Amino acid sequence: MTETQKNPLAESFNALSLVRFAFPSMVMMLFMGLYTIVDTIFIARFVDTNALSSINIVCPVINLIVGLGTMLATGGSAVVAKKMGNGNTEEARSNFTLIVVAGAVIGLLITAAGLLFLDKIIWGLGANEILFPYCRDYLTIQLIFIAFNMMQVLYQNLFVTAGKPTLGLVLAVLSGIANIVFDYVFIVLLQMGIKGAAIGTGIGYMIPSIIGTIFFLMKRSELHFCKPNMDASVLLKSCSNGASEMVSQCSTAVTTFLFNVTMMKLLGEDGVAAITVIIYSQFLLTTLYIGFSMGTAPVVSYNYGSGNVKQLKKTVRICFRFIAGISIFAFLFSMFGGESIAKVFAENNRNVFEITKNGFSIFSFSFLFSGCNIFSSALFTALSNGKASATISFLRTFGFITVSLLVLPRFLEVTGVWLAVPFAELFTLMLTVYLLCRHRKQYNYF
Protein backbone atom coordinates (compact mmCIF):
# COMPACT_ATOMS: atom_id res chain seq x y z
CA MET A 1 0.00 0.00 0.00
CA THR A 2 1.41 3.42 -0.98
CA GLU A 3 1.74 6.36 1.40
CA THR A 4 -1.09 8.18 -0.39
CA GLN A 5 -3.37 5.18 0.07
CA LYS A 6 -2.48 4.99 3.74
CA ASN A 7 -2.96 8.69 4.41
CA PRO A 8 -5.15 10.94 2.24
CA LEU A 9 -3.13 13.96 3.40
CA ALA A 10 -0.18 12.65 1.38
CA GLU A 11 -2.04 13.21 -1.90
CA SER A 12 -0.48 15.59 -4.42
CA PHE A 13 -3.37 18.04 -4.35
CA ASN A 14 -4.33 20.31 -7.21
CA ALA A 15 -6.83 23.17 -6.92
CA LEU A 16 -9.89 21.01 -7.57
CA SER A 17 -8.92 18.11 -5.31
CA LEU A 18 -7.92 20.46 -2.46
CA VAL A 19 -11.26 22.27 -2.60
CA ARG A 20 -13.01 18.91 -2.73
CA PHE A 21 -11.04 17.79 0.34
CA ALA A 22 -12.02 20.95 2.26
CA PHE A 23 -15.64 20.91 1.03
CA PRO A 24 -17.14 18.91 3.96
CA SER A 25 -15.68 21.37 6.48
CA MET A 26 -17.03 24.29 4.45
CA VAL A 27 -20.50 22.75 4.27
CA MET A 28 -20.54 21.99 8.01
CA MET A 29 -19.55 25.55 8.92
CA LEU A 30 -21.97 27.04 6.38
CA PHE A 31 -24.78 24.90 7.80
CA MET A 32 -23.99 26.10 11.32
CA GLY A 33 -24.07 29.69 10.07
CA LEU A 34 -27.34 29.14 8.25
CA TYR A 35 -29.30 27.74 11.16
CA THR A 36 -27.93 30.50 13.39
CA ILE A 37 -29.08 33.21 11.02
CA VAL A 38 -32.44 31.49 10.35
CA ASP A 39 -33.06 31.68 14.08
CA THR A 40 -32.69 35.48 13.99
CA ILE A 41 -34.85 35.74 10.84
CA PHE A 42 -37.74 34.07 12.69
CA ILE A 43 -37.38 36.56 15.51
CA ALA A 44 -37.11 39.61 13.24
CA ARG A 45 -40.02 38.67 10.97
CA PHE A 46 -42.45 37.01 13.37
CA VAL A 47 -41.81 38.98 16.57
CA ASP A 48 -40.22 42.37 15.77
CA THR A 49 -36.89 44.12 15.38
CA ASN A 50 -36.88 45.13 19.06
CA ALA A 51 -36.79 41.45 19.94
CA LEU A 52 -33.84 41.06 17.57
CA SER A 53 -32.06 43.96 19.29
CA SER A 54 -32.66 42.47 22.73
CA ILE A 55 -31.01 39.19 21.75
CA ASN A 56 -27.86 41.06 20.79
CA ILE A 57 -28.02 43.04 24.04
CA VAL A 58 -27.85 39.84 26.15
CA CYS A 59 -25.52 38.05 23.73
CA PRO A 60 -22.37 38.84 25.81
CA VAL A 61 -23.78 36.68 28.62
CA ILE A 62 -24.17 33.75 26.22
CA ASN A 63 -20.65 34.39 24.87
CA LEU A 64 -19.18 34.12 28.36
CA ILE A 65 -21.09 30.92 29.13
CA VAL A 66 -19.99 29.31 25.86
CA GLY A 67 -16.46 30.51 26.65
CA LEU A 68 -16.50 28.78 30.05
CA GLY A 69 -17.83 25.58 28.50
CA THR A 70 -15.34 25.64 25.64
CA MET A 71 -12.44 26.38 27.97
CA LEU A 72 -13.31 23.41 30.16
CA ALA A 73 -14.05 21.21 27.14
CA THR A 74 -10.95 21.86 25.04
CA GLY A 75 -8.60 21.93 28.00
CA GLY A 76 -10.24 18.89 29.55
CA SER A 77 -10.13 16.95 26.28
CA ALA A 78 -6.36 17.45 26.15
CA VAL A 79 -5.96 16.16 29.72
CA VAL A 80 -8.19 13.12 29.12
CA ALA A 81 -6.70 12.27 25.70
CA LYS A 82 -3.14 12.41 27.06
CA LYS A 83 -3.95 9.99 29.88
CA MET A 84 -5.73 7.66 27.47
CA GLY A 85 -2.64 7.79 25.24
CA ASN A 86 -0.44 6.92 28.21
CA GLY A 87 -2.61 3.90 28.97
CA ASN A 88 -4.11 5.41 32.15
CA THR A 89 -7.66 4.62 31.04
CA GLU A 90 -9.24 4.45 34.48
CA GLU A 91 -7.77 7.80 35.48
CA ALA A 92 -8.89 9.28 32.15
CA ARG A 93 -12.46 8.12 32.81
CA SER A 94 -12.38 9.59 36.30
CA ASN A 95 -11.09 12.93 34.99
CA PHE A 96 -13.67 12.90 32.19
CA THR A 97 -16.51 12.32 34.63
CA LEU A 98 -15.23 15.03 36.97
CA ILE A 99 -15.02 17.54 34.11
CA VAL A 100 -18.60 16.84 32.97
CA VAL A 101 -19.95 17.04 36.53
CA ALA A 102 -18.04 20.29 37.09
CA GLY A 103 -19.52 21.73 33.90
CA ALA A 104 -23.06 20.86 35.02
CA VAL A 105 -22.49 22.30 38.51
CA ILE A 106 -21.00 25.52 37.10
CA GLY A 107 -24.04 25.79 34.84
CA LEU A 108 -26.43 25.48 37.78
CA LEU A 109 -24.48 28.07 39.80
CA ILE A 110 -24.60 30.50 36.85
CA THR A 111 -28.37 29.92 36.60
CA ALA A 112 -28.84 30.76 40.27
CA ALA A 113 -26.60 33.83 40.20
CA GLY A 114 -28.00 35.03 36.89
CA LEU A 115 -31.63 34.84 38.03
CA LEU A 116 -30.73 36.55 41.31
CA PHE A 117 -29.07 39.53 39.60
CA LEU A 118 -31.08 39.38 36.35
CA ASP A 119 -32.30 42.99 36.23
CA LYS A 120 -28.90 44.46 37.12
CA ILE A 121 -27.23 42.37 34.41
CA ILE A 122 -29.69 43.53 31.73
CA TRP A 123 -29.40 47.22 32.62
CA GLY A 124 -25.62 46.85 32.80
CA LEU A 125 -25.53 45.44 29.27
CA GLY A 126 -27.08 48.63 27.92
CA ALA A 127 -30.79 47.84 27.56
CA ASN A 128 -33.26 50.74 27.52
CA GLU A 129 -36.84 50.72 28.79
CA ILE A 130 -38.19 49.51 25.43
CA LEU A 131 -35.83 46.53 25.18
CA PHE A 132 -35.76 45.60 28.87
CA PRO A 133 -38.92 43.39 28.85
CA TYR A 134 -37.67 41.49 25.78
CA CYS A 135 -34.24 41.00 27.32
CA ARG A 136 -35.74 39.80 30.58
CA ASP A 137 -38.01 37.24 28.91
CA TYR A 138 -35.24 35.88 26.71
CA LEU A 139 -32.41 35.81 29.26
CA THR A 140 -34.57 34.27 32.00
CA ILE A 141 -35.28 31.21 29.86
CA GLN A 142 -31.70 31.04 28.56
CA LEU A 143 -30.42 30.99 32.15
CA ILE A 144 -32.71 28.08 33.01
CA PHE A 145 -31.08 26.04 30.23
CA ILE A 146 -27.46 27.02 31.09
CA ALA A 147 -26.46 23.58 32.44
CA PHE A 148 -27.61 21.97 29.18
CA ASN A 149 -25.71 24.61 27.21
CA MET A 150 -22.53 23.83 29.14
CA MET A 151 -22.93 20.09 28.71
CA GLN A 152 -23.60 20.22 24.97
CA VAL A 153 -20.42 22.28 24.52
CA LEU A 154 -18.48 19.74 26.61
CA TYR A 155 -19.86 16.75 24.75
CA GLN A 156 -19.13 18.21 21.30
CA ASN A 157 -15.43 18.16 22.20
CA LEU A 158 -15.41 14.98 24.26
CA PHE A 159 -17.15 12.91 21.57
CA VAL A 160 -13.99 13.42 19.48
CA THR A 161 -11.81 12.36 22.43
CA ALA A 162 -13.98 9.26 22.80
CA GLY A 163 -13.42 8.42 19.13
CA LYS A 164 -17.00 9.28 18.12
CA PRO A 165 -16.68 12.51 16.07
CA THR A 166 -19.49 11.48 13.70
CA LEU A 167 -21.92 11.21 16.61
CA GLY A 168 -20.95 14.72 17.67
CA LEU A 169 -21.55 16.06 14.16
CA VAL A 170 -24.92 14.29 13.84
CA LEU A 171 -26.09 15.67 17.20
CA ALA A 172 -24.91 19.18 16.30
CA VAL A 173 -26.90 19.08 13.05
CA LEU A 174 -29.91 17.55 14.83
CA SER A 175 -29.74 20.27 17.49
CA GLY A 176 -29.68 23.00 14.84
CA ILE A 177 -32.60 21.54 12.92
CA ALA A 178 -34.60 21.10 16.13
CA ASN A 179 -33.93 24.73 17.03
CA ILE A 180 -35.36 25.89 13.69
CA VAL A 181 -38.39 23.58 13.90
CA PHE A 182 -39.24 24.63 17.44
CA ASP A 183 -38.75 28.28 16.51
CA TYR A 184 -41.47 27.80 13.89
CA VAL A 185 -43.75 25.98 16.34
CA PHE A 186 -43.33 28.35 19.27
CA ILE A 187 -42.95 31.67 17.44
CA VAL A 188 -45.15 31.28 14.34
CA LEU A 189 -47.78 28.71 15.33
CA LEU A 190 -48.12 29.33 19.08
CA GLN A 191 -47.31 33.08 18.92
CA MET A 192 -45.07 32.90 22.01
CA GLY A 193 -42.79 35.70 20.83
CA ILE A 194 -39.25 35.95 22.13
CA LYS A 195 -40.02 33.44 24.90
CA GLY A 196 -40.67 30.87 22.17
CA ALA A 197 -37.31 31.63 20.58
CA ALA A 198 -35.54 31.09 23.91
CA ILE A 199 -37.37 27.81 24.55
CA GLY A 200 -36.53 26.56 21.05
CA THR A 201 -32.86 27.33 21.62
CA GLY A 202 -32.97 25.65 25.02
CA ILE A 203 -34.45 22.45 23.55
CA GLY A 204 -31.64 22.57 20.99
CA TYR A 205 -29.18 22.50 23.90
CA MET A 206 -31.00 19.60 25.56
CA ILE A 207 -30.84 17.17 22.63
CA PRO A 208 -27.04 16.61 22.53
CA SER A 209 -26.87 16.90 26.34
CA ILE A 210 -29.40 14.16 27.04
CA ILE A 211 -28.28 11.83 24.23
CA GLY A 212 -24.63 12.39 25.19
CA THR A 213 -25.32 11.58 28.84
CA ILE A 214 -27.16 8.38 27.88
CA PHE A 215 -24.31 7.38 25.52
CA PHE A 216 -21.61 7.78 28.16
CA LEU A 217 -23.75 6.05 30.82
CA MET A 218 -24.19 2.99 28.56
CA LYS A 219 -20.39 2.46 28.50
CA ARG A 220 -20.28 1.79 24.76
CA SER A 221 -16.88 3.41 24.30
CA GLU A 222 -13.58 3.24 26.12
CA LEU A 223 -14.38 6.65 27.59
CA HIS A 224 -17.47 6.56 29.81
CA PHE A 225 -18.78 7.68 33.19
CA CYS A 226 -17.45 6.23 36.43
CA LYS A 227 -17.11 7.33 40.05
CA PRO A 228 -14.80 10.37 39.86
CA ASN A 229 -11.93 11.27 42.16
CA MET A 230 -12.28 14.85 43.34
CA ASP A 231 -8.98 16.20 42.00
CA ALA A 232 -9.03 20.01 41.75
CA SER A 233 -5.72 20.01 39.85
CA VAL A 234 -7.46 18.32 36.91
CA LEU A 235 -9.97 21.16 36.66
CA LEU A 236 -7.24 23.79 37.03
CA LYS A 237 -5.18 22.11 34.32
CA SER A 238 -8.21 21.90 32.04
CA CYS A 239 -8.98 25.60 32.51
CA SER A 240 -5.38 26.67 31.91
CA ASN A 241 -5.17 24.52 28.76
CA GLY A 242 -8.35 26.01 27.33
CA ALA A 243 -7.81 29.59 28.49
CA SER A 244 -7.30 30.88 24.94
CA GLU A 245 -10.82 29.76 24.02
CA MET A 246 -12.22 31.72 26.94
CA VAL A 247 -10.25 34.80 25.88
CA SER A 248 -11.72 34.50 22.38
CA GLN A 249 -15.29 34.41 23.67
CA CYS A 250 -14.59 37.25 26.11
CA SER A 251 -13.30 39.32 23.17
CA THR A 252 -16.54 38.66 21.29
CA ALA A 253 -18.58 39.58 24.35
CA VAL A 254 -16.73 42.88 24.81
CA THR A 255 -16.92 43.93 21.16
CA THR A 256 -20.62 43.00 20.96
CA PHE A 257 -21.24 45.09 24.08
CA LEU A 258 -19.35 48.05 22.56
CA PHE A 259 -21.32 47.78 19.30
CA ASN A 260 -24.60 47.68 21.22
CA VAL A 261 -23.80 50.59 23.55
CA THR A 262 -22.49 52.76 20.71
CA MET A 263 -25.48 52.13 18.45
CA MET A 264 -27.94 52.55 21.30
CA LYS A 265 -26.42 55.97 21.99
CA LEU A 266 -26.44 57.02 18.34
CA LEU A 267 -29.64 55.50 16.93
CA GLY A 268 -31.46 53.74 19.77
CA GLU A 269 -32.92 50.24 19.56
CA ASP A 270 -33.27 50.43 15.76
CA GLY A 271 -29.52 50.95 15.51
CA VAL A 272 -28.90 47.87 17.67
CA ALA A 273 -31.23 45.86 15.42
CA ALA A 274 -29.28 46.98 12.34
CA ILE A 275 -25.88 46.06 13.78
CA THR A 276 -27.35 42.69 14.84
CA VAL A 277 -28.39 41.93 11.26
CA ILE A 278 -24.95 42.84 9.91
CA ILE A 279 -23.01 40.92 12.58
CA TYR A 280 -25.01 37.76 11.94
CA SER A 281 -24.65 38.19 8.17
CA GLN A 282 -20.89 38.60 8.64
CA PHE A 283 -20.80 35.37 10.64
CA LEU A 284 -22.59 33.51 7.85
CA LEU A 285 -20.28 34.75 5.09
CA THR A 286 -17.06 34.21 7.06
CA THR A 287 -18.00 30.56 7.62
CA LEU A 288 -16.76 30.02 4.05
CA TYR A 289 -13.28 31.22 5.06
CA ILE A 290 -13.31 29.36 8.35
CA GLY A 291 -14.52 26.08 6.84
CA PHE A 292 -11.95 26.18 4.04
CA SER A 293 -9.17 27.02 6.51
CA MET A 294 -10.20 24.17 8.82
CA GLY A 295 -10.35 21.73 5.92
CA THR A 296 -6.94 22.60 4.44
CA ALA A 297 -4.95 23.08 7.67
CA PRO A 298 -4.22 19.32 8.11
CA VAL A 299 -2.81 19.22 4.54
CA VAL A 300 -0.49 22.12 5.35
CA SER A 301 0.60 20.47 8.62
CA TYR A 302 1.25 17.14 6.91
CA ASN A 303 3.39 18.58 4.13
CA TYR A 304 5.32 20.78 6.56
CA GLY A 305 5.92 17.83 8.87
CA SER A 306 6.99 15.52 6.03
CA GLY A 307 9.35 18.14 4.60
CA ASN A 308 7.57 18.18 1.23
CA VAL A 309 8.39 21.83 0.46
CA LYS A 310 7.19 21.63 -3.15
CA GLN A 311 3.72 20.41 -2.19
CA LEU A 312 3.56 22.84 0.76
CA LYS A 313 4.21 25.79 -1.54
CA LYS A 314 1.68 24.50 -4.05
CA THR A 315 -0.97 24.00 -1.36
CA VAL A 316 -0.49 27.43 0.20
CA ARG A 317 -0.54 29.09 -3.23
CA ILE A 318 -3.83 27.37 -4.11
CA CYS A 319 -5.30 28.34 -0.75
CA PHE A 320 -4.53 32.03 -1.08
CA ARG A 321 -5.93 32.11 -4.62
CA PHE A 322 -9.10 30.39 -3.50
CA ILE A 323 -9.43 32.71 -0.49
CA ALA A 324 -9.02 35.70 -2.83
CA GLY A 325 -11.85 34.36 -4.99
CA ILE A 326 -14.16 33.81 -2.00
CA SER A 327 -13.29 37.29 -0.70
CA ILE A 328 -14.37 38.94 -3.93
CA PHE A 329 -17.56 36.85 -3.98
CA ALA A 330 -18.40 37.72 -0.34
CA PHE A 331 -17.71 41.42 -0.96
CA LEU A 332 -19.91 41.57 -4.07
CA PHE A 333 -22.66 39.52 -2.44
CA SER A 334 -22.68 41.78 0.61
CA MET A 335 -22.38 45.01 -1.38
CA PHE A 336 -25.08 44.29 -3.95
CA GLY A 337 -27.19 41.92 -1.86
CA GLY A 338 -27.17 44.04 1.29
CA GLU A 339 -30.53 45.61 0.50
CA SER A 340 -32.13 42.18 0.00
CA ILE A 341 -30.60 40.88 3.24
CA ALA A 342 -31.85 43.94 5.10
CA LYS A 343 -35.35 43.37 3.68
CA VAL A 344 -35.40 39.75 4.91
CA PHE A 345 -34.81 40.92 8.48
CA ALA A 346 -36.46 44.34 8.56
CA GLU A 347 -39.25 44.31 5.99
CA ASN A 348 -41.70 45.53 8.64
CA ASN A 349 -39.48 48.31 10.01
CA ARG A 350 -38.49 50.91 7.43
CA ASN A 351 -36.03 52.71 9.71
CA VAL A 352 -34.09 49.52 10.56
CA PHE A 353 -34.13 48.60 6.86
CA GLU A 354 -32.57 51.92 5.83
CA ILE A 355 -29.93 51.85 8.58
CA THR A 356 -28.97 48.26 7.70
CA LYS A 357 -28.88 48.93 3.95
CA ASN A 358 -26.59 51.92 4.43
CA GLY A 359 -24.42 49.94 6.81
CA PHE A 360 -23.85 47.14 4.30
CA SER A 361 -22.51 49.62 1.73
CA ILE A 362 -19.59 50.38 4.07
CA PHE A 363 -19.24 47.18 6.11
CA SER A 364 -18.96 45.05 2.94
CA PHE A 365 -15.36 46.16 2.40
CA SER A 366 -14.29 44.10 5.43
CA PHE A 367 -14.79 40.90 3.39
CA LEU A 368 -11.99 41.91 1.03
CA PHE A 369 -9.49 41.65 3.92
CA SER A 370 -10.92 39.17 6.45
CA GLY A 371 -10.45 36.02 4.36
CA CYS A 372 -6.67 36.43 4.17
CA ASN A 373 -6.50 37.15 7.89
CA ILE A 374 -8.59 34.12 8.88
CA PHE A 375 -6.68 31.75 6.61
CA SER A 376 -3.27 33.12 7.66
CA SER A 377 -4.15 32.60 11.32
CA ALA A 378 -5.10 28.99 10.53
CA LEU A 379 -1.92 28.61 8.44
CA PHE A 380 0.33 29.58 11.34
CA THR A 381 -1.62 27.25 13.64
CA ALA A 382 -1.06 24.42 11.14
CA LEU A 383 2.67 25.28 11.17
CA SER A 384 2.67 25.13 15.01
CA ASN A 385 3.34 28.87 15.34
CA GLY A 386 0.71 29.63 17.95
CA LYS A 387 2.13 33.07 18.74
CA ALA A 388 1.68 34.42 15.20
CA SER A 389 -1.74 32.79 14.89
CA ALA A 390 -2.97 34.18 18.21
CA THR A 391 -1.64 37.67 17.37
CA ILE A 392 -3.62 37.81 14.13
CA SER A 393 -6.76 36.39 15.72
CA PHE A 394 -6.64 38.63 18.80
CA LEU A 395 -6.06 41.86 16.88
CA ARG A 396 -8.76 41.26 14.25
CA THR A 397 -11.44 40.13 16.71
CA PHE A 398 -10.65 42.42 19.64
CA GLY A 399 -7.68 44.78 19.55
CA PHE A 400 -8.26 46.83 16.41
CA ILE A 401 -12.08 46.61 16.62
CA THR A 402 -12.10 47.94 20.19
CA VAL A 403 -9.85 50.86 19.31
CA SER A 404 -11.89 51.62 16.20
CA LEU A 405 -15.19 51.56 18.10
CA LEU A 406 -13.83 53.82 20.81
CA VAL A 407 -12.34 56.35 18.37
CA LEU A 408 -14.14 56.45 15.00
CA PRO A 409 -17.76 57.09 16.17
CA ARG A 410 -16.57 60.18 18.07
CA PHE A 411 -15.66 61.81 14.78
CA LEU A 412 -17.82 60.03 12.20
CA GLU A 413 -20.80 58.93 14.35
CA VAL A 414 -22.71 56.01 12.72
CA THR A 415 -20.32 55.88 9.76
CA GLY A 416 -17.54 55.25 12.28
CA VAL A 417 -19.39 52.20 13.60
CA TRP A 418 -19.69 50.73 10.10
CA LEU A 419 -16.01 51.45 9.43
CA ALA A 420 -14.79 49.79 12.64
CA VAL A 421 -14.62 46.24 11.26
CA PRO A 422 -13.22 47.16 7.79
CA PHE A 423 -10.51 49.24 9.49
CA ALA A 424 -9.74 46.43 11.94
CA GLU A 425 -9.45 43.89 9.11
CA LEU A 426 -7.32 46.24 7.00
CA PHE A 427 -4.84 46.95 9.82
CA THR A 428 -4.74 43.23 10.64
CA LEU A 429 -4.02 42.48 6.99
CA MET A 430 -0.99 44.78 7.10
CA LEU A 431 0.31 42.87 10.12
CA THR A 432 -0.54 39.55 8.46
CA VAL A 433 1.48 40.41 5.34
CA TYR A 434 4.42 41.38 7.57
CA LEU A 435 4.23 38.06 9.48
CA LEU A 436 3.94 36.04 6.28
CA CYS A 437 7.03 37.73 4.84
CA ARG A 438 8.94 37.46 8.10
CA HIS A 439 8.43 33.70 8.41
CA ARG A 440 8.59 32.67 4.74
CA LYS A 441 12.20 31.42 4.91
CA GLN A 442 11.47 29.52 8.12
CA TYR A 443 8.50 27.60 6.65
CA ASN A 444 9.19 27.84 2.90
CA TYR A 445 5.51 28.33 2.01
CA PHE A 446 6.31 30.88 -0.73
Automatic annotation (TrEMBL):
Gene Ontology biological process terms in this record: response to antibiotic
TM region positions: 21-43, 55-76, 96-118, 138-155, 167-190, 197-218, 272-297, 318-338, 358-382, 394-412, 418-437
GO cellular component: a single term: plasma membrane
- Keywords tagged on the record: Antibiotic resistance, Cell membrane, Membrane, Transmembrane, Transmembrane helix, Transport
Does the keyword field hold Cell membrane? yes
Read off the Pfam families from this record. MatE
Q: Which InterPro entries match?
A: MATE_fam, MATE_MepA-like, MATE_MepA_subfamily, MdtK-like
Q: A Gene Ontology molecular-function term?
A: antiporter activity
Q: What subcellular locations does the record give?
A: Cell membrane
Keyword Transport (UniProt): yes
Q: How does it sit in the membrane?
A: Multi-pass membrane protein
Q: Family membership, please give it.
A: Belongs to the multi antimicrobial extrusion (MATE) (TC 2.A.66.1) family. MepA subfamily.
Name recorded for this polypeptide: Multidrug export protein MepA
Organism of origin is Parablautia muri
Q: What is the lineage of its organism?
A: Bacteria, Bacillati, Bacillota, Clostridia, Lachnospirales
